[in-house]
Amino acid sequence: MVRINFSRRSFRVPAFLLKKAQISVEYMMIIGFATLMALPLLIIYYNYTSDATEAVASGQALQIARLIADSSESVYFLGSPSQTTLKLNFPDNIDSTNLSNREVLFRMNIKKGRTTDIVQISSVNMTGTLPKTAGMHIVTIKAQDGYVLVTSN
Questions:
Q1: Cβ atoms within 10 A of the Cβ of 60, count?
Q2: Which of 39, 49, 57, 65 lies in disulfide reach of 91, CB 3.0 to 4.6 Å?
Q3: CB–CB of 92/140 below 8 Å?
Q4: Residue 10: CB partners within 8 Å, gap ≥ 6?
Q5: Is the Cβ–Cβ distance between 82 and 124 less than 8 Å?
Q6: Residue 2: pLDDT band by 50, 70, 90 thresholds?
Q7: Cα–Cα dist 129/96, whole Å
Q8: What is the DSSP letter of 1?
């Protein structure tokens, strides 16, 4: 028995209970230390995955822009009645799209409110609209007299 004094009273506590309390405190300290060590790893993991996601989305937008520019050139040089249809998967962080003269432009949101432009130049004039919503879209590219019309369904 161990005697513990609190102000004017004293209590007798069996020694095995003090041993259990010490083990519990040590266990809580180990768990707390492990949590503090794991927290920076979780933050690093989150930053790495968000950077990788942005790189994949930018690469996907660039591939779509190249495909639209290349298909526009092919359709234009084949002549007026020709057209082609593309089934494209647009990434989710597109802020705006623009087809003007010879450029395909995707403005994309990246982390911390910044934007980046993905631009692909073509040798033919293009006009029309592209979607900015994420997901599968069917894009039709049709040759006209002197330009290419790009539409999305």
A1: 19
A2: 57
A3: no
A4: 3, 4
A5: no
A6: low
A7: 10
A8: -
- At residue 7, the pLDDT reads 61
What tokens appear for 138 in the block?
Answer: 């069917």
- Tens digit of each residue's pLDDT (9 = 90 or more) over 55-107: 999 999 999 999 999 999 999 999 988 999 999 999 988 999 999 889 999 99
pLDDT confidence tier of residue 5, bands split at 50, 70 and 90: low
CB 106 within 8 A of CB 133: no
User: pTM of the predicted model, to two decimals?
Assistant: 0.73
Q: Is 61 left (phi over 0), alpha (psi -120 to 50) or beta?
A: alpha
How far apart CA 91 and CA 136 sit, in angstroms, is 9
**Strand residue runs (E) in 25-147:** 83-90, 94-100, 103-109, 115-121, 126-128, 135-143
Distances (CA, A) of 76 to 24, 79, 104, 129, 144: 77, 6, 16, 17, 8
* Tokens of residue 36, six digits: 């503090």
